[in-house]
Amino acid sequence: MIRLYVSSDLAPGSAVAPTLDQSRYLTQVMRLKVGDDLLAFNGRDGEWRAEVAEVLKKGVILRVVEQTRPQIFGPDLELIVAVVKKARVETIVEKAAELGARHVRLVLTRRTNADRLRLDRLDAIAEEAAEQTGRLDVPPVDNPVRLDALLDGWDEGRRLMFCDETGGAPAIDALMAAAQAAGQTVEQAGGGGKWAILIGPEGGFSPEEGERLRALPFATRVSLGPRILRADTAAIAAMTLWQAAVGDWER
Ligand code: SAH
Hints:
alpha/beta; CATH 2.40.240.20; elongated; 251 residues; binds S-adenosyl-L-homocysteine; Alpha/beta knot
């Protein structure tokens, strides 16, 4: 069934107006008619069955019928990536939504070669990817901030998986050991333990940045194998390894 992310509140009987693009998708691509069903979620109220109540020139109106699932969130995993080329950032945001990151943060580093990014476009990519996965929240994508500022304001209860091509430990073992040392049970890591993954820019981290990152008490420095990966590939590999080691994948 079609799943649609909407921003309005969802409650029995309420009317919801999807965006013009979504309306076009529903009526022109999926050919929905008045009375047809779909699923709607907003990241707060769970998932609801809704039906097409009206098809107007300026979009469709949905009527919310009943809740199909209560609101749930996946593991508390943030993905922090240095700003890279626009197309790669778009891939990273889509894959972060698919692989279960709760939040995407973009950072500026010494060697960041920043393309101008359109946050609204990145949000739309995250929403579409979330619709497709079946998850009930959409990872927000934040405006880029400086890496130093992000580290200055770090919540020390959140572990950092620092992906370092210059010599980190094998990822799965290091993540499991770090989760255990932090007192996280498998259930907590999958649902309660707080983590973030850090991926650097195409030029890598500068020596000063590397030094600071290696000294952080909350960081686990990991390798993603013997080959140097592009940032988008590294992000996908890191999220996969994290999910397999301490995330919500069944073991
Ligand atoms: N400094 C590199 C390229 C950096 S790749 C160069 O030689 O140009 C971009 C980012 O992806 C890195 O900062 C790192 O966070 C991550 N990455 C890529 N390959 C990796 C690997 N094999 N192990 C760990 N991290 C990796």
